[in-house]
Amino acid sequence: IDLATFAAGLPKAELHLHIEGSLEPEQMFAFARRNAVAIPYPDVEAVRAAYAFNNLQDFLDIYYAGADVLRTEADFRELAAAYFARCAADHVVHTEIFFDPQTHTARGIPIGTVIEGLLAGMADAQAEHGISSSLILCFLRHLDEADAFATLEAARPWLDRIAGVGLDSSEQGHPPSKFERVFAAAAEFGLKRVAHAGEEGPPAYVTEALDLLKVDRLDHGNRSLEDPLLVARLARSGMTLTVCPLSNLKLCVVPDIDAHPIDRMLRLGLRATINSDDPAYFGGYVNDNYSAVAASGRLTRDDFVTLARNSFLGSFLPDADVARHL
Ligand code: ES4
Ligand code: ZN
Hints:
8 strands, globular, alpha/beta, binds zinc ion, binds 6-chloro-9H-purine, eight-stranded parallel sheet
C-alpha cells in the first residue's frame, strides 16, 4: 500500500480543530434555512468560491460571518456529529475540540447553548463511534482581557467538563502577554492551557506563550523555526506542536505544500502532530492533511507512525489511556 493509505489507516488523535471551522457550506445553508438567517451567498458553490484567503484575517472575517447560522443547541450537536462522522472515517479515535464562545455570546447565544450542544454531540460520538473527546474553550485574542475574564466566569458551571483553555483569532498585535492573568486564573481552576503562537506572529510570541501563559501545548508554532535557541528549548521540553499543513497552505503561511516544514520539525526533534484546524475552510480533514504531506514525499512510514504516536502523547488523555493507544 502507498504512504497516504498507510497513514490514513493509523489510529490517531486530533489536537487542533475549531468546531466552528468544520461547518461545511451545505450545513451552513441547512442551518440558515431552518433558523431563518440570511447568508450573503446564492449557493454552495459561491460559498466555496469565497474561500480564497491571502492571510489569517481574510479567513477569520469569513469564518466569523459563517458562524452566524449557528443558533440552537441542536445546531451545535449536529455540527459536532458531522465532524465526528469524518473522524470515524479517518481513524481519529480521540479529539480535543476548540470552540469560540465569544463568537456566539456576542450574538446573544447563551454559552450554555453552545456547551450543552457540543457535549451532547460528544456523548453521541462516544456511543456511536467509540470516539473519545474533550473541549478546549478558546479566548478570542482580538478582544480585550475583560471580555476573556467574563467568558471564563460565564463558563464556570461547565468547567468540570472542559479540559482546558486556548487562545486564537488575529495573532499579530495581540501577544500572549495580553492574557497572562486570564491564563493564570484558568490554571487555578485546574484547566490545561494551549495557545496559537507563531502562525503569523514572531518567535517572541511563542516564548511569551511558554513563559507567561505556561502552555501545555503550542498551536501551529511554525515561526519557532526562525529561532534555533527556541527550537532547542521546545525539543528539550518535549513540547507538542499542533501543526496544520493545509491551513498553512490556505492562509499563505507556506507558499506551497512542498515548502511545508513538517519534515524539518521532525528532524529537529520537535514533537509535531498533524491536524486539520478548520477543515471546511481549508480543504480537508485529518487524513487529507496526512495525504497532502505524504504526497510531498519527504516523510517515511516511520515518520507517520511518529506523527500518530505524537498525537496521543500530546493529548490531555490520562496516562493509562495514552498508553492504551500507543
Ligand atoms: C484559526 Cl487557523 C486559525 N488561527 C487563529 N485563529 C483561528 N480561529 C480559527 N482558526
Ligand atoms: Zn487554529
